[in-house]
Task: inverse folding
């Protein structure tokens, strides 16, 4: 029987004590929880924050008063300490830990995703507990995912997880900020995406935003689109068992009843297009009306230095992006074809996602908005 695969993400707030450093007791609770989830038969991937928090004090830095470079430095010191603390916590439970550090690059390119998936599969088969974090020391600017809620959701998508659990210091998702509004109510189950939900998550920089509900909501959005149930719950003893048994714990975002193929969800949220092809009107119409492949004669122009296998955007002559697909030829080969008058009806791009599909669950900032 296929084992349930669960991605559990734990935020810094669940690990850090009053002095701002990672507390062994709190981390021990997380390890205990993950180990008992595994003992119940599930495969567990643990995404843990806390590297920066664990590295501040050893460098004599104070939270809130650090430069970007100091944050990177703190992560370098803290990540080692964090994994060492997990190793100490898991060893008595008979579990070997494995450090997995990711940046956007590992999640955005098809071949890297394949390698990552294979490595995670091998770790799980051999009984190790992957402890995943963003490689904060080197992941900067566009290489950066930026938050572990999104990282955990993308990981759940590419690793074929069945469930994503976001553990935090609040026992679920509320209709208003519970730290500000005394009448705030926890939402137990979310089955549909509404504007009210987005509003309840707060704006970035608001109390809830920095508490991370906004990134959690968007993580739930990504995971549920791929058919992964997502639960936001408080880090406490027994929480994962209760989540698994379906007891009313935290907020459960139900997986989309008819999720698209995971590849499409990845393509929308994880992949970074490496180029853009401009289509003639006929080809643009074909791509929009049906999930057609794009043939050489339908291409008018091409931009970017992509290779075969890379993700590319497909756009109209007005430069409006209408789809994404996987290039079957690299940019150089394609340019050579484009220079010829007569081109064979050879497939140039496998169209994987077109705009009408995207519109159904449209969200700002997914790169398919233009026009
Ligand atoms: N990767 C960061 C760390 O380990 C945390 C990112 C987040 O809080 O989402 O400190």
Result:
């Amino acid at each position: 029987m296929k084992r349930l695969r669960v991605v559990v993400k734990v935020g810094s707030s669940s690990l850090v004590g009053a002095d701002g450093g990672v507390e062994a007791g709190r981390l021990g609770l997380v390890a205990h929880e993950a180990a008992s989830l595994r003992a119940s038969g599930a495969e567990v991937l643990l995404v843990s924050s806390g590297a920066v928090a664990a590295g501040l004090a050893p460098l004599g830095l104070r939270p809130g008063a650090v430069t970007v470079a100091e944050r990177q430095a703190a992560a370098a010191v803290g990540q080692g300490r964090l994994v060492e603390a997990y190793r100490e916590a898991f060893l008595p439970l008979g579990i070997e830990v494995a450090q997995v550090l990711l940046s956007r690059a590992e999640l955005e390119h098809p071949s890297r995703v394949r390698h990552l998936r294979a490595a995670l599969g091998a770790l799980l088969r051999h009984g190790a507990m992957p402890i995943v974090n963003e490689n904060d020391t080197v992941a900067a600017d566009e290489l950066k995912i930026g938050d572990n809620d999104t990282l955990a959701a993308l990981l759940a998508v590419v690793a074929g997880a069945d469930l994503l659990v976001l553990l935090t210091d609040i026992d679920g998702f509320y209709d208003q900020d519970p730290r500000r509004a005394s009448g705030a109510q926890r939402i137990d189950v979310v089955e549909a995406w509404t504007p009210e939900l987005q509003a309840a998550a707060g704006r970035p920089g608001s109390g809830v935003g920095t508490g991370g509900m906004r990134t959690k909501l968007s993580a739930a959005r990504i995971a549920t689109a791929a058919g992964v149930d997502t639960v936001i719950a408080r880090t406490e003893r027994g929480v994962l068992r209760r989540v698994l048994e379906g007891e009313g714990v935290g907020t459960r975002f139900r997986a989309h009843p008819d999720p698209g193929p995971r590849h499409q969800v990845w393509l929308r949220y994880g992949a970074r297009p490496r180029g853009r092809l401009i289509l003639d009107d006929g080809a643009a119409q074909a791509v929009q009306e049906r999930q057609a492949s794009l043939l050489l004669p339908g291409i008018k122009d091409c931009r970017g230095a992509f290779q075969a296998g890379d993700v590319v955007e497909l756009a109209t002559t007005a430069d409006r992006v209408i789809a994404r697909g996987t290039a079957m030829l690299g940019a150089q080969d394609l340019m050579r074809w484009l220079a010829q008058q007569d081109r064979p009806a050879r497939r140039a791009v496998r169209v994987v996602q077109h705009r009408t599909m995207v519109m159904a669950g449209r969200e700002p900032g997914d790169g398919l908005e233009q026009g």
